[in-house]
Automatic annotation (TrEMBL):
Keywords for the protein's UniProt record, in alphabetical order: Membrane, Transmembrane, Transmembrane helix
Ranges of biased composition (kind: Basic and acidic residues): 1-30
Protein name: Phospholipid phosphatase 6 isoform X1
GO MF term (any one): sphingosine-1-phosphate phosphatase activity
């Protein structure tokens, strides 16, 4: 009986068809996932694909830091005494303050987290800087570029340099992994809108002289 059962088992195994190997050609291809803009963070760390360029990106980041520009405008106000120059610099100062407050407010309301690729080593940051939307560097860079182009129309080289600098600052936010693409895009739009709003709120020369004369003395 044992031999008959073993023979039956062998024949049943032989009769079984081998499992069909699925053909790769017949497989249904899954749709490719949407592009991840975080893949642009090529300078997020020193070990990143373009990590060698990270120091340059950091320099661009610092060059558009709000605190740096606030200190620079205050220094210029203390050094110049021509009323027309004071008018321009004071409005620039007012615009920078407006930009910082607006960006902080939006970040506090939206509270979008920064990309996972970001290495949080920014200098002189506040609590709201942990949030991503919008990019304050993008708003500031675009605002400054348009402001300089409008107020210094005769220096074409400076205008070209400023717009180029603003573009590199915005792109560096993606390369460093600081922001999502939409953070930078909306930041640029907000920066442009800021300029035209502040242009309507432009502080006149007489008002600037009235406000600053106790500090700067009589302006010429």
């Amino acid at each position: 009986m044992s031999t008959e059962s073993s023979v039956r088992e062998r024949t049943s195994v032989r009769e079984k068809k081998p499992a069909e190997v699925p053909n790769d050609k017949t497989k249904v291809k899954e749709p490719s996932p949407p592009p991840e803009w975080n893949q642009l963070a090529l300078c997020a760390t020193n070990d990143a694909p373009l990590g060698i360029l990270r120091p340059i990106m950091i320099v661009l980041e610092i060059s558009c830091h709000g605190l740096l520009w606030i200190v620079a405008t205050i220094t210029m106000l203390m050094c110049i005494h021509k009323a027309n120059h004071v008018e321009i610099v004071f409005n620039l100062f007012f615009g920078l303050i407006f930009d910082i407050l607006l960006v902080c407010l939006i970040k506090w309301l939206v509270q979008r987290q920064r990309p996972s690729a970001n290495y949080m080593d920014m200098v002189a940051t506040s609590k709201v800087d942990q949030y991503s939307f919008p990019s304050g560097h993008a708003t500031r860079a675009c605002y400054l570029a348009i402001f300089i182009a409008k107020q210094v129309p005769d220096t074409r080289k400076l205008i070209v340099f400023t717009y180029t600098w603003a573009a590199f600052v915005c792109f560096s936010r993606l390369l460093l992994g600081r922001h999502h693409f939409t953070d930078v895009l909306c930041g640029c739009i907000i920066g442009v809108l800021e300029f035209y709003v502040l242009e309507m709120l432009w502080i006149s020369q007489s008002t600037c002289s009235f406000i600053l004369s106790p500090l700067l003395g009589e302006l010429v």
